[in-house]
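Lab manual, section 2.4: Encoding a predicted structure.

Procedure: take the sequence of the chain (140 residues), apply the prediction step described in section 2.3, and record the output as structure tokens. A sample record is shown.
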Amino acid sequence: MDEEHIRPEGVDDLTVEALGNISEALEAIEIARGHLYSFHRITGTADFTLEKGVDQLREAGHTELADRFERELVGRNVLYGRWTFQVMEEYDDGYYATFKRLEKDARDALVQGKRHLYESEMKEERRTHGRTGHEHRPDE
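Recorded output:
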């Protein structure tokens, strides 16, 4: 039996469902964090590509316009006082770290730290017992 995904004795349905919703919200936050890292990468790539275009404008004799791009946009903060790496660090160290800590604290306090109890129980309800491709766990 997979004790890691078995509800501890005395834990009610609403608690398991609540922790499932909190876990689902954390999954959404993980996706948002991934998009933030994509934002960081894409913005950095755009800045370097912009710089290349500015250099080409300068080579083509458009120095005034190239100077304006360079002054106003190349290397500019994306938010006041911040490049994207600073946005990521603030998000990671603040909201994201707090969310991760509270979600773990709730699991530790209520279900002995067990993860995905809601999903595990849903799997048991939905799978066809004894059928290939519907095994309880990989070691069956």
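Check your result against the sample. Residues 13-59 form the longest helix (47 residues).
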